[in-house]
Amino acid sequence: MSGSGTLLQALLDASADPALGVRVAAVVADRPCVGLERAERAGVPTSVVRPGDHADRAAWDTALAARIAQAAPAFVVSAGFMRILGPAALAVATVVNTHPALLPSFPGAHGVRDALAYGVKVTGTTCHVVDAGVDTGPIIEQRVVAVAEDDTEESLHERIKVQEREMLVEVVGRLAREGFTVEGRRVRIG
Length: 190
Hints:
Elements (H helix, E strand, L loop, with lengths): L5 H10 L11 E3 L4 H8 L4 E3 L8 H15 L4 E3 L8 H6 L2 E5 L11 H8 L3 E8 L9 E8 L6 H26 L1 E4 L2 E4 L1
Parallel strand pairs: 1-2, 3-4
Antiparallel strand pairs: 4-5, 5-6, 7-8
């Protein structure tokens, strides 16, 4: 986790209901952040795996993979973790991420800004499986958000975040309760 932890908070809040079928096993970040504080308040184990504490990217990826393996998750949610995961981390468990655009359009760190600059009339959010690329993995779910004539990057992103949090909670619950398979570019739940 790299951000403020609002996606994490949505998962923590929703996981308090046993009907969701989700338990947050651990929260790992690449630096100290508000998300770690949120997890600690919820009684979830936390840790930081800083890239700068390792000789190179591969060593960091191996350390991150070891930390993920310690938690033994059914799958990993990369909520706000703004780093590309390497092969070691991706081999431990399926990783699910969200992105504030309708992939494959507008991948990368500036999806909202790029969508506005392009002049789209709708954008949204995507939940996808993480692969070795940047926002290129198989799509699990998408939600559409209309672009208003007077939208700024901030106003549009706030509306997208509302859909992103709802979608992530719903998808994570379904993945946990119903199971899933990834077959090429398709993710099948149940």
